Design the sequence.
């Protein structure tokens, strides 16, 4: 699975280490063939206190349109962002990356 993840990251030129790609497939959207990648954005530590004791509370799934050189085959990343609660400081947070901000769906 690691080599599959690294191949997709290389293909899309994504350097974010907290994104894990799981699968990809093709889907017809408005009579156009889209390539859809499924990925998960992992939150390794609390952004407020840095604690590793996190309680996972589901995911927020966003569809991110990713810019590519070939406009005839658009790419969409279905990103599942982890929602977590810190057990030390009791604050809620959501995973963020350079690819997409907290509630954003544009890369």
Sequence:
């Amino acid at each position: 699975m690691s080599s599959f993840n690294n191949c997709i990251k290389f293909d899309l030129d994504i350097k974010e280490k907290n994104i894990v790609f799981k699968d990809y497939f093709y889907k017809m959207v408005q009579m156009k063939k889209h390539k859809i990648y499924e990925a998960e954005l992992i939150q390794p530590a609390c952004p407020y206190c840095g604690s590793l004791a996190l309680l996972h509370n589901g995911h927020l799934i966003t569809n991110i349109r990713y810019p590519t050189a070939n406009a005839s085959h658009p790419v969409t990343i279905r990103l599942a962002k982890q929602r977590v609660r810190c057990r030390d400081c009791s604050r809620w947070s959501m995973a963020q990356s350079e690819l997409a901000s907290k509630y954003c769906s544009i890369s």
